[in-house]
Amino acid sequence: MNRRAWGGGAAALLLCAAFAHFCVRIVPAEAPSPLPSPPVPRSSQTAARGKLVIPVEGVPSSALADTFTQARAGGARPHDAIDIMAARGRPVVAAADGRVEKLFWSGEGGRTLYQRSTDGKRIYYYAHLDSYAPGLGEGQALQRGQPIGTVGSTGNADESAPHLHFAIHLVRPDEPWYGGQPINPYPLLVGS
């Protein structure tokens, strides 16, 4: 092989390496971040007290859809929640400060978590979870942004469409974890 051919091959190799380094972005398949991750520091959270964070890590407000009034059960009832679509295993975080009121399995919601707000007037309901965060238990205090589980499709959710079913109910502090008056979480999340 002559020197000129060798030089041309080396130059082509250098150009390919430079192209790969500066122009090609390799994006891995969507993989969940491992649990548990540390709670989100208060300084990096929403500045205004009482604001909600989107309860699925990495989902921007622009990806949310208002499904609160959509019909469910063949039109028999309204949804009274929103579905946040995400990859199975993506971390679910507490939308607000509070405490774990109930960890519960139901036919419709699958693996669920009920969280009571610090003032006792709201219940945040997280359903179709694939798993709970390690060590999570009833009565445990939660900070906004703290991992509580992972996105899944347990209960009556479509196996091919993992998501978090997220609802908010207004309750009196003495009311149980179930029931209450549903309110639409969508404007509370997109405004945050």
TrEMBL record:
Signal peptide region: 1-22
Keywords noted in UniProt: Hydrolase, Metal-binding, Metalloprotease, Protease, Signal, Zinc
Name of the protein described by the UniProt record: M23 family metallopeptidase
A Pfam family reported for this protein in Swiss-Prot or TrEMBL: Peptidase_M23
All copies of domain M23ase beta-sheet core, residue ranges: 78-185
Entries under InterPro entries matching the protein: Cell_wall_metabolism_enzyme, Dup_hybrid_motif, M23ase_b-sheet_dom
Organism: Sphingobium soli
Top-level division of the source organism's lineage: Bacteria
Keyword Methyltransferase part of the UniProt annotation: no
Cofactor(s) the record lists: Zn(2+)
